[in-house]
């Protein structure tokens, strides 16, 4: 929706940017480091950090700051209030029971795939991504699946802004190769990747569309690759019909 400039509170946006400045590699930040990561002045960053401490969303030793568990309430509010993950949950649960694999539902948040629903199979060992996980879109199968629904212009813009970091020797780091994969996912209606993020794991996903034909996310699964591994054709033959049926049923209710 279009929002008039006078109705926007810049301070809220800056405070959220400070929260987003923390990640695995930057778990503790000084005011100067937070300023550098957010584009704020040191004085402004320090005031936002102190405010987060005051409201219980961060802790500090007087020099460095780190997020407090209370910040999880922000993400939990989405999971509890959003209609889409709750609607999809029983469908991925059914897929898990029918196929004996872990299934998930994920969405694209700029350049990250975010897992918002998940059901486990009856296997003793559970693999895949827990709810709330955020993963670079080029290394997990929902990425190409969702991006395959983009227009070419939108896709080119996305590719130009994305950082293609390597996680394994098999990670696709060439934008041209990744674009070819996205086009492949568009032609097939699904996509499979192998060992892009973690050695020994294979992913399969297909985009989920609503009744208006707009992509709202992807239904996917993460599979171990036994030795010798099952072929891609075997995986597709076993899982694709049930995944396709689930996506078609969901499209009618979204």
Main beta sheet strand tally, sense and closure: 6 strands, antiparallel
Instruction: Output the strand order for the largest sheet.
Output: 5-4-3-8-7-6
Report the uncertain regions: none
**Total strand segments:** 8
Provide mean pLDDT, rounded.
Answer: 91
Pattern of helices and strands = HHHEEHHEEEHHHEEEH
Radius of gyration: 20 Å
Share of residues in helices: 40-55%
Terminus-to-terminus distance: 20 Å
The geometry reads as: globular
CATH class of the largest domain: Alpha Beta
Question: What is the H level of CATH, i.e. the homologous superfamily of the largest domain?
Answer: GAF domain
Structural class call reads: alpha+beta
CATH architecture of the largest domain: 2-Layer Sandwich
Oligomer: single chain
In what range is the share of β-strand residues? Answer: 15-25%
How many H/I helical runs? Answer: 9
Quote the CATH topology of the largest domain.
Beta-Lactamase
Number of domains: 2
């Amino acid at each position: 929706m279009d929002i008039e400039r006078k109705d926007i509170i810049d301070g809220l946006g800056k405070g959220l940017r400070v929260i987003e400045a923390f990640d695995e590699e930057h778990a503790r930040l000084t005011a100067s480091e937070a300023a550098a990561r957010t584009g704020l002045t040191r004085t402004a960053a320090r005031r936002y950090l102190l405010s987060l401490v005051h409201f219980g969303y961060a802790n500090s030793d007087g020099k460095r700051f780190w997020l407090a568990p209370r910040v999880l309430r922000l993400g939990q509010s989405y999971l509890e209030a959003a209609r889409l993950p709750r609607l999809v949950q029983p469908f991925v649960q059914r897929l898990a029971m029918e196929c004996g694999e872990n299934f998930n539902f994920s969405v694209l948040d700029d350049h990250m795939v975010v897992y918002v629903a998940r059901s486990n199979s009856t296997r003793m060992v559970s693999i895949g991504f827990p709810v709330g996980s955020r993963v670079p879109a080029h290394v997990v199968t929902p990425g190409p699946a969702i991006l395959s629904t983009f227009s070419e212009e939108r896709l080119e813009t996305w590719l130009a802004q994305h950082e293609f970091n390597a996680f394994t020797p098999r990670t696709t780091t060439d934008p041209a190769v990744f674009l070819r994969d996205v086009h492949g996912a568009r032609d097939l209606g699904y996509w499979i990747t192998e060992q892009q993020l973690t050695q020994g794991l294979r992913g399969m996903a297909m985009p989920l569309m609503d009744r208006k034909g707009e992509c709202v996310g992807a239904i996917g699964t993460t599979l171990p690759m036994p030795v010798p591994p099952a072929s891609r054709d075997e995986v597709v033959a076993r899982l694709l019909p049930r995944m396709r049926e689930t996506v078609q049923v969901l499209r009618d209710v979204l």
